[in-house]
Amino acid sequence: MDFRYLGNSGLKISEITYGNWITHGSQVENDVATQCVRAALDAGITSYDTADVYANTAAETVLGEALKGERRESVEIFTKVYWPTGPRGHNDSGLSRKHILESINGSLRRLQTDYVDLYQAHRYDVETPLEETMQAFADVVRQGKALYIGVSEWTADQIRAGHALAKELGIQLISSQPQYSMLWRVIEDEVVPASRELGVSQIVWSPIAQGVLTGKYLPGTPPPAGSRATDEKGGADMVGRWLRDDVLTAVQGLVPIAAEVDLTPAQLAVAWVLQNDNVASAIVGASRPEQVHENVKAVGVKLDPEVMSRIDAALGDVVTRDPALTAKNTPQARPS
C-alpha cells in the first residue's frame, strides 16, 4: 500500500479507502462485511469511510464491530453528518449545531471509538448559517471527537467559504469527497483548482462508476445476475444512469487498454483517478473479500500520457464534465 498526505496536513491516508456505503448493513450480511474489512486490513488499507446515514446508522455499527481489536492509532476512520437518521424528526438532518453535536456522539458510539480522524459535512446545508456549522465542527475538534474536518459534494465557492471560516476558528478543513471517475469529471474545472489553492485533497467516491467501469455490463444485454444493477435495495437506482448503450459500448473500448498495461478494467479505473495529484485516496467498496485484493493492485500504478490519451479517445463524448452539476448536489431544502 502507498500513502498520501490529506491536504496540507500531516495526516497520511492509504491510497485506497475502504468504504461501506450500500454494502454494510444492507446489501451483504454482517459476517461477509467483516470478512471484507479483514481483507482490507490484510491488504494494507488503513483508511475506512462510512456515514451515519448508510443503512440508517447500521453501516457504522458494522464497521465498528469489524475494526474491534485493531490498534486505533493504526487506522483512519472517516464518517459524515447531514442526511436524516433515526426517526427523521425535524432536527434529525442538516448541519445545525444541534444535529452535528448529537450526531458525532451517536457515530462514536456505533464505531466504538473515542474519536474519528475525519468528520465530513455530507452535503451543504442551505438552511443553516455556515458560521454556525463551522463553529459546531470547531467544537467537535476541540472536544477531541474529530481530528480534522472535511466536506462532501460542495462546490468550489462553498469549499472556499468553509475553509476561510475553519481557518479563522483554528481548525483544519482538509478534504473534499466528490464523485469522480473516468465517466464523471465534473470536479476538474472548478473544485480541483480551488482545492489545490487551499490545500484540500479529494477522497473520491465511485471511481469505478458503480461497477460500470469493470466492463461487466454489456450493451444490449441484461445486467448480470447478482450485480449492483439488480439490487433493489438501492444499488440499481444508482447504477441505472450509466446503463446506456453508448456508455457501455465506450467502456468496452477500455478493455484492451487495461489488458495492455496488465490491469483489469476495474484496476485501470482506480489507477486513473489516482493519477490526479489532488486525489489523496479512492474509495472502494466490496461485497466479497476477493474484490478488495483485486482493487488494491491499482496502487502505485503509473499510467503514461499515451495511455491516458487513449482512455479519453475511447470514452469520447460519454464523459460528463459540466462543473455546474456539483451545485445540483446541494439540496435546496433540508431533507426529512
Automatic annotation (TrEMBL):
Superkingdom in the source lineage: Bacteria
Biological source species: Nocardioides jejuensis
Q: Where is the NADP-dependent oxidoreductase domain?
A: 15-314
One example of the protein's molecular function in GO is: oxidoreductase activity
Instruction: Report the PANTHER family cross-referenced here.
Output: HYPERKINETIC, ISOFORM M
Q: Which InterPro entries match?
A: AKR (IPR020471), K_chnl_volt-dep_bsu_KCNAB-rel (IPR005399), NAD(P)_OxRdtase_dom_sf (IPR036812), NADP_OxRdtase_dom (IPR023210)
> Per the similarity annotation, which family is this?
Belongs to the shaker potassium channel beta subunit family.
Q: Which UniProt keywords apply?
A: NADP, Oxidoreductase
| CDD domains with a match to the protein in the record | Aldo_ket_red_shaker-like
Q: Name one Pfam family in it.
A: Aldo_ket_red
Q: What is this protein called?
A: Aldo/keto reductase
